[in-house]
Amino acid sequence: xxxxxxxxxxxxxxxxxxxxxxxxxxxxxxxxxxxxxxxxxxxxxxxxxxxxxxxxxxxxxxxxxxxxxxxxxxxxxxxxxxxxxxxxxxxxxxxxxxxxxxx
Amino acid sequence: xxxxxxxxxxxxxxxxxxxxxxxxxxxxxxxxxxxxxxxxxxxxxxxxxxxxxxxxxxxxxxxxxxxxxxxxxxxxxxxxxxxxxxxxxxxxxxxxxxxxxxxxxxxxxxxxxxxxxxxxxxxxxxxxxxxxxxxxxxxxxxxxxxxxxxxxxxxxxxxxxxxxxxxxxxxxxxxxxxxxxxxxxxxxxxxxxxxxxxxxxxxxxxxxxxxxxxxxxxxxxxxxxxxxxxxxxxxxxxxxxxxxxxxxxxxxxxxxxxxxxxxxxxxxxxxxxxxxxxxxxxxxxxxxxxxxxxxxxxxxxxxxxxxxxxxxxxxxxxxxxxxxxxxxxxxxxxxxxxxxxxxxxxxxxxxxxxxxxxxxxxxxxxxxxxxxxxxxxxxxxxxxxxxxxxxxxxxxxxxxxxxxxxxxxxxxxxxxxxxxxxxxxxxxxxxxxxxxxxxxxxxxxxxxxxxxxxxxxxxxxxxxxxxxxxxxxxxxxxxxxxxxxxxxxxxxxxxxxxxxxxxxxxxxxxxxxxxxxxxxxxxxxxxxxxxxxxxxxxxxxxxxxxxxxxxxxxxxxxxxxxxxxxxxxxxxxxxxxxxxxxxxxxxxxxxxxxxxxxxxxxxxxxxxxxxxxxxxxxxxxxxxxxxxxxxxxxxxxxxxxxxxxxxxxxxxxxxxxxxxxxxxxxxxxxxxxxxxxxxxxxxxxxxxxxxx
Lengths: 103, 692
Known about the structure:
The complex is a heterodimer of chains A (103) and B (692).
Chain A: H1 2-19, H2 21-24, E1 39-45, H3 50-57, E2 65-71, E3 78-82, E4 85-89, H4 91-94, E5 97-101
Antiparallel strand pairs in A: 1-2, 1-5, 2-3, 3-4
Chain B: H1 2-20, E1 26-33, H2 39-47, E2 51-55, E3 62-69, E4 74-79, H3 91-100, E5 112-118, H4 122-134, E6 139-144, H5 146-151, H6 158-165, E7 169-171, H7 180-193, H8 207-212, H9 214-219, H10 224-244, H11 255-263, H12 268-309, H13 314-331, H14 334-350, H15 352-367, H16 374-379, H17 384-390, H18 397-406, H19 416-426, E8 431-432, E9 436-437, H20 438-463, E10 475-477, H21 485-519, H22 524-536, H23 539-556, H24 558-570, H25 577-586, H26 592-600, H27 612-620, H28 632-644, H29 649-659, H30 662-689
Parallel strand pairs in B: 1-4, 1-5, 5-6, 6-7
Antiparallel strand pairs in B: 2-3, 3-4, 8-9
Helix pairs in contact in B: 4-10, 6-10, 12-13, 12-14, 13-21, 14-21, 17-29, 18-20, 19-20, 19-27, 19-28, 20-28, 21-29, 22-23, 23-24, 24-25, 25-26, 28-30, 29-30
C-alpha cells in the first residue's frame, strides 16, 4: 500500500513539473520544483505582490537556507522548514522563490 | 456601544486599584507577539480573571483587555491580535498599528510594549520586534518556550541578546508563573525611563518621513523598497542571532515533524482527520443530549412555574409562552456549542488546526475557498452560529464572507426534528432494495442537497460579487504543544458567552413578536367557554376543548391571518395555510415547526417529533376543502424547503454582527429563501407531474 501511495505522489509531482516546463527552460531553479528533503539556499524572492512581502516577512529572504518537508495529500500546498519552524505555502507561491542547491 | 462600556469597566477597575494607593499610576501596556508564541497564556497569567473580551468598534477583531497589577502601579494590559508583521495587510495588523499609534478611541498610546518572543523560532519572532522598535515605544521582550528550545539544543544567551538589542529580555514560563515578577520589574523600569532605541537597520534616509506619514508607509507595501527594508531587518536579526545563539542545525527534523509524519501523511493524515471529526461530532451529539434534555425540561418547568405563580393573564402568557419558551429554545443548543468550542479550542491550542487547513486546502480551493474555510463549514453541521463565528480565522474578507454566506446550507441539528417528523409520518417502514430504509436515504439526500448547493453557491459567488485573486496560503504550521487547560477553558467560555449574549438579545425580541402575533387579537369567548366547561366535563375532555380553543385562537390570530394571507404563495408548493403558520413561525427557528404544528393539529402540548399523536395528526390532517393536507410529496417538499431556507433568527443576528452589514445579511436571507422556494416549487410540481 505504501508503494502505491508513493507512486501516486510521484505522478502528481511530475504533473506539476510538466506544467512548469516553460519556466524551467529558463534554468531558474525555484522552490516549486525542489524535491522533498533537499536543502537549498534562497537566491531571490521575485515579484512585488502581497504574497512576496508576506513570504519575506516570514523570514524567507535571500541568503536563508531551507528544506522542503513534504507536500499535502493532493500535491499542494508545500511544507518547508526555515529558520527553525515549519511554513506551508502553495506551489504557485513557491514559484516566486528562486533557490540554489546546497550540494 | 456595549464594547465601549466594557472597556470602560476595565479602565474603571484600573482606576479603583490605583485609588487604593495614591502613589500608583495607571500605565497602558500592549502585549504583542506572533501567533502561537504563548501570548494568550502569558496574558492569562498576568491578568488572571480580570479581563474583558469585546470587539474593536465596527470590526470583528477581538479586543482583549485586562488589569495587570505591577505592584507599584497598575496597568491596562491590551492583548493585540497575533501578528507576524505590522504592515497593515490584514485587518489584525491594521488594528495593532492603530493601537500602537494611539488611534483607537478611549485607548491611550501604550507606555510600554511587551513583545512575546518564542525562543524556538527566534528570528521570525524578532522580526516583529524590529518593527515594534521602529514605532518608538519602549519594548520589553518576554522570551517564551525556552525549555522547548533547550530540548532542541538551542542555547540562547539571554543577557547577550538583551545587550545586543538594547532591550530588556526576560525569560518567562507563564504556565508555572516563572519570570512574571521580573517581567513586571523590567516593565516598570522601562516605563519610567522611556528608553527609546534608534533602529540600527534603517536602509534609506527617508525612513523618518515614512514612519511619520501613515499613507506613505501604507503605499510602500507594494514597493520593492519595502522588500529591501524587510531584508535589512532580517540581516540585522541574523547578526544578533549568530552572536546570541549557539550555532545548531535549525533545519533538522524535530518532534513536530515526526508527529506530522503520521498526522499529515498523504494517506493516513486524511483518515485521521476524518476520524477526529467523526469523534467530535459523535461526542457533540451524544454527550450534549443529556444536558440538552435537562435544559429542555428545566425551561418547561420554569414556564409552568411562572404560569402557576403569576396572576393569570397576558403577563403570565408573555413570560411563560413568549420569553421563557423562546429564549429556552435557543439556550438549549448551548451544550452543543460549548462542546464544539471546547474541541475547536483544543485543536487550535495543540496546533492541529493549521494541519487540517494544510491537508484540505487543495480540495477547498477547487470551490474557490481557503483551506481554513473547512472548519467553519464543518461546525455548521452542528449549528451555523459557531460555524459563522469560526470563520473569523479566515483573513481575506471576501473569502470569509463567501464562507459565511454558504455556512447555513450545512444541515444543522435544528433541521433534524423536522426531517424526523416528516419521515416518521410518511416514509417509516419503507425500504429501498429491501434493506435500506427510505428514511435514512432521505436524510442522507437532504445533507447532500445542502452540501451540493453550498458548493454551487460558493463557486458562483467567488466568480461574481466576491471575486478575488486566489487567497494566499502562506501559513505557519506551529509546533505541536500540549493544550493549556486554562487557555482552552477561557477560550471556550468567552466564545460561548458571546453566543448567549448576541443570540439571546435578538431571540428575546423575536420570541416576543412571534408570541404576540399568535396571541393577538384575543377572541373573548374562548376563555369563558373553556372555563365554564371545565366544571362539568372530565379533565380529558376539558383538555380537548382547550386545545380546540387554542387552535381556533391561532386561526384568528395575526399569525393565523398571515398564514391565510400567504396561502396563495405557498399553494404551488402544496402547503395549506396551517402549514403556512408553521412556516412563518419556523423562520424564528426551524424546530419551532414541530411545536407549532402540534398546536395547530390539537395534539398534546408536549408533543415531539417522535410522538405518535403528532405523526397521526399530520397524516390525517385535512385542508379546508377536505383533501389531505399532507402527502409524501408535500412532506418531501417541506424537507427540501428546510434544507435551503434561511429560517433561523439567531443565525441572522450573528451574520449581521459578523459581517457588520445589513445588506449582506438581507442578501443572504433573500437569496436563500428565494432558492428554497424555487427548488421546493420544482420538487412539488415535477413530483405532481410524475404522478406522486
